[in-house]
Amino acid sequence: MFFRKSPWIIHYDATSCNGCDIEVVASLTPLYDLERFGIINTGNPKHADIFVVTGSVNESSRAVVKNIYDQMPNPKVVVAVGICATSGGIFRECYNVLGGVDKVIPVDVYVPGCAARPESIIDGIIKALDILERRSREFRKTKREARRQERKLRRYHLDD
Amino acid sequence: MTPIDYYIHLDSIYLKAAIYIVLAPLLGGLLAGVDRKLSARMQGRIGPPVLQPFYDVLKLFQKEKIIVNKFQNFNVILFFVFMVFTGSLFFLGGDLLLVIFALTLAGVFFALAGFSVNSPYCHVGAERELIQMMSYDPMIILVAVGMYQVTGTFRVDAIALYDEPLILYLPGVFLGYLHVLTIKLRKSPFDLSMSAHAHQELVSGLKTEFSGTTLAMIEIGHWYENVLLLGIIYLFFSFNSIVGVAAMLLLYFFEIVIDNTYARFKWELTFKSTWVVTALFGAANIIILYFAMRP
């Protein structure tokens, strides 16, 4: 219920020309002011809810992307910003490029553009909030079910 | 009779403790929200809603728990418990010296929490936290000493009911306390060990490895701490509760201005400047008072 009001972001640039990278930072400036939605750029995967990736994934950044995603506590969503992050863009055919971010981790929102404009980045992140909210409900449900399952198992062992 | 006078004259310590334990986090969270809003306005932004810190903490309670070391959460819980204990002692009118040592104990557990995980960011953050404690502790002890010199007691309730304004006797101690208040509130230029803002050199410093419920407890612990620190400001102006509250709010605003106008200091400068201020304002005030008050 509170994920929509307080989504914290971590931002990582997998490769690319840094254009989208700069646009993501631009959306935090006073002109666009992402913080009015409660969005904070944490820079720390353990505090983050939304993973914003720019740039295509290559052989050396693949482990980093995977690592950051694994370190984020559930529930979490991934937003791929820029055409490189969605499909590999003009770097698609390069010998070391795997393609978009979805080749390594599941992506929830794709924000196209070269470079993606701050307006569309903000729009993409606001879209991701709905998904985050849904995922948090699912997360709570699975947690409840796991607890029920565990209780059932314990009762079973007591009967032995 | 203002609500604060009413609170000081309450007889039941249980009622006093209950009021503090319930109201302090609400007040602390609200202050943090006002802080973020005002900071945003000073930077020409709209800023988050005033209730944003509460949304953040309630969200953190719903996140998955990731624990890298079993002692990590133990230390944070001890930090939280001692922080609530310290504040309760103060607001029940207990001994000011005991309050200060319990506050230090809470700080030690917080630093231990940082040392208990393997992340180098946490370790550097915890080391800086210890350096900060070394910097501000002498000045905070001088606050207690100065208040004792004037009022003849260490008991907070007796100091709060003292008729004459303490600020007139302890202007130097007060300035020294203002200096260390910036460290204690974790404001720039002294936000070395951890920072609310992203893109500092230490990721999130001391709290890098803490997530979910534990991080929420750290936040709420700091709300309790901030209310306690503002309570100490009140003691300087306790001759009139309206003046006291006005001073607390004004100085909190002043800290926000400082936060938004300074870049971060290095630890050497933090340490040296704090001890120079402690000696120049704090100790000098105590010495002058000693000779002036001698019968």
Work out the helix count of chain A.
Answer: 4
Determine the structural class of chain B based on helices, strands and strand pairing.
mainly alpha
Roughly what is the average pLDDT of chain A, rounded to an integer? 87
Tell me the helix content of chain B: over 70%
**What is CATH's topology name of chain A?**
Rossmann fold
Structural class of chain A: alpha/beta
Mean pLDDT of chain B: 88
Low-confidence stretches of chain A: none
Q: Quick one: how many beta strands of chain B?
A: 0
State the major sheet of chain A.
5 strands, parallel
Q: Report the uncertain regions of chain B.
A: none
**Helix-strand topology string of chain B:** HHHHHHHHHHHH
Beginning-to-end CA distance, first to last residue of chain A? 41 Å
In the CATH hierarchy, the architecture of chain A is 3-Layer(aba) Sandwich
**Gyration radius of chain A, rounded:** 18 Å
Q: Name the assembly state.
A: heterodimer
Order of helices and strands of chain A: EHEEEHEHEEH
How would you describe this structure to a colleague?
The complex is a heterodimer of chains A (160) and B (295). Chain A is of the alpha/beta class and 160 residues long. Chain A has a single domain (8-159), classed as Rossmann fold (3-Layer(aba) Sandwich), CATH 3.40.50.12280. Helices cover 41% and strands 16% of the residues of chain A. Chain A has four helices and seven strands, in the order βαβββαβαββα. In chain A, the strands form two sheets. Chain A has a five-stranded parallel beta sheet, sandwiched between helices. A two-stranded antiparallel sheet of chain A has the order 4-6. In chain A, helix 1 links the parallel strand 1 (8-13) and strand 2 (40-41). The mean pLDDT of chain A is 87. Chain B is mainly α and 295 residues long. Chain B has one domain (3-293). Chain B is 74% helix and 0% strand. Chain B has twelve helices and no strands. Chain B has helices at 3-8, 13-42, 52-62, 70-91, 96-115, 120-151, 156-160, 166-169, 171-184, 212-236, 241-261, 267-293. Chain B is globular, with a radius of gyration of 19 Å. The two termini of chain B are 36 Å apart. The A-B interface holds A 1-3, 5-6, 30, 33, 35-38, 40-44, 46-47, 49, 71, 73-75, 136, 139-140 and B 36, 40, 43-49, 52, 55-56, 58-59, 62-66, 198-200, 203-204, 208-212, 215.
